[in-house]
Design a protein that fits this description.
- The chain is of the alpha+beta class.
- It has 12 helices and 9 strands.
- The strands form 3 sheets. A 4-stranded antiparallel β-sheet has the order 5-4-7-6, with helices on both faces. Strands 2-1-9 form a 3-stranded antiparallel β-sheet.
- Strand 1 and strand 2 form a beta hairpin.
Length: 357
Amino acid sequence: MLLKTAHRATWLFSAVSLFTVVATVGCKKEHGADVVASVNGHAIMRSELDRTYEDQERTRQDQQPITEEQAKSDKLQILRTLIDAEITEQRAAKMNLTATNEEVDAKLTEMKSHYTEEQFNQMLKESGRSLDEVRRDLRKSITLEKLFNKEINSKINVTDGEVSSFYNSHKADFNLIENKIHLAQIVVTNQPSQQAGGNLQGSKAGNDADARKKIATLKAQLDSGADFSALAANYSEDPQTASNGGDMGFISESQLRQDAQVWDAVSKLKAGENTAIITITPPGTKQPIGYSIIHLVSREAAGQRDLNNPAVQQNIRDQIRNTRSQLLRSAYLEMLRDQAKVENYYAEDIFKAGSGS
């Protein structure tokens, strides 16, 4: 599961792509059939689009053949993420923030430390990906993290006054009558009638096969080192938590124990770890309505937490900082898109063929 990444570039972003370009005929440069888009003159090749699409199909559990229209729609979505990736990578390169070989090697070593060499090689084999492809994805992930740290996170300042104000407004939340666990979640439903749950990408699975494919893709991205809160903000379909990076807040142990499946999965986690994919099945039924992945942020023992507790202060600062970071990332990516010259030739071809123009 670790490396079955379907949308390779998808986990690199935390904002919605809105800029498929249909250029006026005669007002664009000629391009080869092997080029599907360009960003500031840099070509995105059809081979990359096809390869990413094939990875997605490899994780699809529904073996029913898909229509030509659905395949094109899927490729359009993938191409949008590849365009976004190119935009941010160009920005990072301009600022000399591209990940170095040493940084990639260190991250790869960290990833492999959780597995034996045999297990790691088996996961590579099952995913159909090479070590070079894993290194490429790690380079993209590290580069994006460096860019966001430089352009966004380094500029977020949380004052003592803001911490105090937050504590006074949420004091009851820090009075733990029993042990509580701070969780975050990513939810994907198979209910086509339900609207996209407020996520940045407007992403919504249309049926159970899509939901299983989507949650498997997200799990693979998490296992490859993707940021949980960023993926939740972009793709989780829970309207209550998606906008907060999946943050569920603190939940009492007694409440969690009411769902044996969830409790069994969460109780085994250490802070910073994720559960396997959990099937969401309403009581008294056998048909699932969706799937989730739960992230353990921290555990808190019962008792009142005072503001002078360093852990309380850090928790508040993190919550305020994360909320601001999500907002600023969205705004930042929108600005980068506005500044980029994007030509989506694949979208143009589909439009022309379908409209008869």
